[in-house]
Design goal:
27% strand, alpha+beta, Ubiquitin-like (UB roll), single chain, 3 helices
């Protein structure tokens, strides 16, 4: 069966299509893709993985044509970023008055 293994960097995305035996897992797909050798910063004990945007465990069994995704850690907390943007907008509104 064929699956895709995907890793997105800030300016590019790597998509690898590989052949696996039925019953293979997310971890098996990642290891078989060779992506761990290309990107040594990937640590499966730290990086979250998923299939088609749904977070899952590395032991999840794959179906044909699944898309395995390796997620990078967030650099900034999205909630904090929204708070900062709101504060900046509030200050701008108050300075115009």
């Amino acid at each position: 069966m064929q699956v895709e293994v995907v890793y997105a960097l800030p300016k590019r995305q790597l998509v690898l299509r590989i052949d696996l035996q039925p019953g293979s897992t997310v971890r098996t797909a990642i290891e078989a893709s060779g992506i761990l050798e290309r990107f040594p910063e990937i640590d499966l004990s730290m990086n979250v993985v998923g299939v088609f945007g749904m977070v899952c465990e590395p032991g999840r069994v794959l179906d044909p044509d699944d898309r395995v995704e390796i997620y990078r850690p967030l650099v900034n907390d999205p909630k904090e970023m929204r708070r900062e943007r709101a504060e900046t907008a509030r200050k701008r509104r108050n300075s115009v008055r």
